[in-house]
Model the fold of this input.
Amino acid sequence: MRAPRIEGFGHIDLTVSDGERSASWWSEVLGFKLVLKVERPGFRVWSMLHPSGLSVGLMMHEDASAGSFDERSTGLDHLAFNVRDRATLESWVTHLDSLGVAHSEIKDENGGPLMTVRDPDNIQLELHAFDLSLVELPPVPPS
Done:
């Protein structure tokens, strides 16, 4: 039986330690806009929307454990955003440098160049100029 169709990406919710701080960072650094703030029993969420249509929720849970994000724990490793090309990555370097936001160098990886940055809770975010034509797939063994 085939899985039913998925129509696209909906949103991602990230648990953060300080919603106001995170919402400000996502707005100032990544260009997201705060569109809704909701408080319910047990949690609060800052709903952020990017002009590209990507929706990210920044959530604070009453019973969240303390500590910063570690991609080596089970769960999220990183979140990747597509960008057009290397020139766009270079523009990101200039933008992040102007804000004093630490980031990696641009690295050439399978599928295209990328760079990483971490949000205030140490969540790794990747900006990737992904190009499927650059993906090197291993050879298929003969059958």
User: Anything to note?
Assistant: Strands lie at 12-15, 33-40, 43-49, 55-61, 79-82, 107-109, 112-118, 124-128. The radius of gyration is 17 Å.
